[in-house]
Batch of 3 targets.
Target 1
Amino acid sequence: MRVGIIGAGVAGLATAKTLQQAGHEVVVYDSAPDVGGVWSRTRRYPGLTTQSAKATYGLSDYPLPKDFPEWPTGAQVQSWLASYASEFALPLRLNTLVTRAAQIDGKWALTFDGGDGDIVDRLVVANGVFCRPNMPSFPGVEEFTAAGGEVLAGTEMHDASLAQGKNVLVVGYGKSACDVTVPLSRVAASTHVIARQLLWKVPRKIAGVLNFKMLLLTRLGEALFRYHRRRGVEKFLHGPGNPIRRNMLNSIGSVSRRQFKLDRLGLVPRGTMEGIVKGAIGLATEGFFEGVADGSIVVHRDTTITRLRPGFAELSDGTTLPADLIVCATGFTQDVPFLDVPDLFDERGNFLLYRQILPLGADGLYFNGYNSSFFSPLNAEMAAVWIAAHLAGAVALPGPDEMRTRVTKQLAFMDEATDRHHSRGGKIIPFSLKNLDEVLDDLDLNISKRVRASHWLNPVDPSAYRSVTPTLVARLHESLPSATRQTVER
């Protein structure tokens, strides 16, 4: 088949490579001039690094280069993805914005900005859950900008020199907010962080010794959070062993308090580390708390901007701050404005996707990258394997009503587990490995129990999944009629 893929980020590229190896003709469309998605030079901000360590972030057969640092920069990740696209000769149509995708006579008709278009047999939406910045609305913004002030999304802040000598306010307290704050604080006249809610930050090295990945990027680390289907050790951890489990999680919070001197800085988040999943699991930005300690960064906790006026911002606690530049690192909106598909969302706007992949309301349509996780490349790659199998009719699915029931139950569980912080159904943290197991068990392609057992105490290595794609491709190849197989081989 000819398969169109919208988005040239990690998910789009992994899908293109996998489907191409399965014998399909693919074409990848992206509005940016380069591959990378969130890592594109058009979107990355100063201070951007991966959330996961290098050894856990790669693809099963294409790891990040050994000479990259433990937490690679945005530019390094983009260069790795560009080399991946080149290595596998992926057909790209960059600078191509898809404005409409409509199903006609079983195929998908795509319209591009500028008027031309394309026809594909099947369509994969891989524009990602971080496709559009969620920008707050500030009263007085017109007067503020008319007087020379600027309000930018974090993804528009491409160069720290834009903050040179300015009074900067960064809105947000997630990883991207803290990441961008540090380089801006080095050149700005003043740097203030406006944090509606403080989040727990996990040290990159706990107590300066134990790498973060050794604790939370393992199956044991994931099992510390309650899943709605529990097996084996998980039943113990969330039953008789619950005090042990709770102490393990909250001890990280205690270490964070001491290591970052949060009590002295007045930055202890409300609640416990056990409740971390209800907001976000944030990796601490190097230099952030040091900047707060030396006064180059000032955090206004439990506060919002209530009004902007020329040269100033008024906060909800009554404070007025000088302001020339407002940088909003306030999350993203999951957006598919080009797609008009019935039953794609529930009544609250959540995506209805079986296994985070298959929409309930359309044939010949798939999503990838709507499984944002600690192991996003690996989750996207295995979702691509699932798509390849489904295209070949090699996935045994429950009936439509049962699929809808399972999707609804999954969303209800994630509502409870994350306090609805699941990107409209597109985020699977902290259950990344649960998703991998479910997707691969559908295909009878999961890696061995022995290797999975080793991942209980060791960080998950994506290369452990290296044989999955070749095994599926071989299986599909053997199922082809002889004449078709010979054509594919030629």
Target 2
Amino acid sequence: MSNPERDVVEFVLTAAVYTDQDDLEPDDLPPEYRAVFWEDGTIERPVVATAEAAREATGVERPWAAVSELMFTDRDEFTGEIEFTDREMAHEWLEKRVDAAHVLENPTLAAAFEDSFEDVGREQARQQVRPARADRAWIDSLLQEYFAEEEEEEMLDLVEIRAPEEVDMTLDELVLTSDQEDEINKLVKAIEHREYLAKIGLREIGKLLFVGPPGTGKTSVARALAHDLDLPFVEVKLSMITSQYLGETAKNVEKTFEVAKRLSPCILFMDEFDFVAKTRASDEHAAIKRAVNTLLKSIDEVSLIQDDVLLIGATNHPDQLDAAAWRRFDEIVNFPKPDDKMRADILGVVTRDMEIVDFDPAALAEMTEGLTGSDLRLVLREAVLDALTEERTTLTQTDLEDAVANFEERDNLKNLDMIEGDHDALVAGGTPDTGDEHEHAEHADHAQD
């Protein structure tokens, strides 16, 4: 439970301890504290606990008001810094108001309180805190350091980079098949034991290919892995290398892998991998074919064990991949459309914050044969919006069943070549379905996705 007085004292004490102990590093600060102290990719001493910084780091709206009555606090009216008039007294005050579990959320505090709590230490606390290399500020500083401003803009047309904190899903929020869970568990173990795998010469690990229809969770699982493993997420859509705005395509493919290696450890997610096979089998421009050959060579040369880069490819069309594409991956992970049980589980997960009268996920699962997790999410969205038009925030099973029927009707209409003589006149002012809606909805999918 939040305690404004305690939270502000902890922030000010953390700043003071970090400033004084030169052996402490950015990884010793909680992520929310680092966020206010980063400057040009570094955290320089002294770190100053101003009221504004305390507000951003702790969420306490009026930090000085929260601690102004304490006999050991003071404020510099000119700089806004909150200070201790007696740091030892502040230390003793805070020690009485925190427990070991709380201290372990702050490595700097753990370093200060090592003698006060059993089984509390700096290294132990660091294992529980997201590392600084995963912070948005750190990622941006690396990009600015290694790429000129013009090059960086060009690269951002090719890749999308997310810090773990910017991924809004976790693996616990997804419904996975047993095979998917097994592959993820093996992957986690490989990451944990990279040094051992390198020692025994087992380096061809950490290149996965996700295959399955749109909306089945390929992108969502990859992003959730980044969140749960505290890894930056570098995403590239391979069709983008044909863009006329990207200049030398082969050079930019190389830069994509360079970005991943600079940000390592990280996840490099390559969507639309079937584009490789399409290009190799077509009469595409020679420059594009060179880019694809560069891509295949770069995949060969990147390694989880040596470079700390986990490579995940994804395709909706595995039938279009050739042998050259398949052999680049050491594991193939199937993402099928969910069966009845998985659809029921998906519905249970995505509705857990909703109030639904007579909710029967098993019955809905039987009605939604063939729908993906992304489809189910869209169904629930429509049910919620329909209820809101009636000024209701409580749904019924009937609302959901009606939404399923409406979704199937719209889906059938999308498959027609023409509606009343107009190709573009789809229901409710919609646009023709290109398959993109399912892919775009995939990131919000809590089911199989």
Target 3
Amino acid sequence: MKIAVTGSTGLIGTALVASLRADGHEVVRLVRRAARSADEIAWDPVRQTIDAGKLNGCGAVVHLAGAGIGDRRWSEAYQRELRDSRVLGTATLAEALTTLDAPPAVLVSGSAIGFYGYTDGRRVDESAPPGDGFLSGLCVAWEEAASPAEEAGIRTVFTRTGLVVARGGGAWGKLFPLFRAGLGGRLGSGDQYWSFIALHDEVAALRHVIDTEELTGPVNLTAPEPVTNREVTAAMGRVLHRPTPFPVPAAALRLAVGGLAEDIVGSQRVIPTRLLESGFTFAFPTVDEAVRAAL
């Protein structure tokens, strides 16, 4: 199958492209510069331009592009960049797909469990409404921007991803050095829930969504059983063979991981009901397994 991918140089996109190509799929990457090869398509998500004709013949489009949540402090200007990179980019791509002579069968549009806001100890799945706060509002607008593709009859799936356990980026990528140095520890009480997913399972779930025709709308990409920060801390200590005796103040975490601290300090207990019901099997369902897989 010919599959187009945005955000192909990010943590998830890099792993997804490698997986697809390893299995013989033809992957074309949308890049924010002039295309330099036949497997690239030029686009500018903020200026809302795209070389749409080159998307003809794609059986699937996976949209993962967006400014990094943890790349900078969340100033008002960067919050606008976070929103514009997602909302304008999604709208540009969705509208372009409606103009194709041969549109894709499916658009997999990335989203996040930030949609639900902070849930504390309450378990939520795809049936839950949006929460409050910046991230929730961002996710709602992000998903709504794909409506042109949905209205055109393209199967559209919103993959609401949790905290990806990987060394190469995201929240966990920034936590690994802290724990390796013996500076890791629980955050406050440690009772806040983290809804995680191993990078391997994230990629496998994206591919499952592409191939599973009955899946439409929101699909949570998180491990089956979220764990508390206290349990994550213990798992990191076990796997890395490091002590974790001291709590980490939230202020120190914000200095270390920037905007990602809002996700890490908050509590989200998100369950992947639709993914499980569709027959997906996790390779690394527990936090210990996910951390070992990242290493």
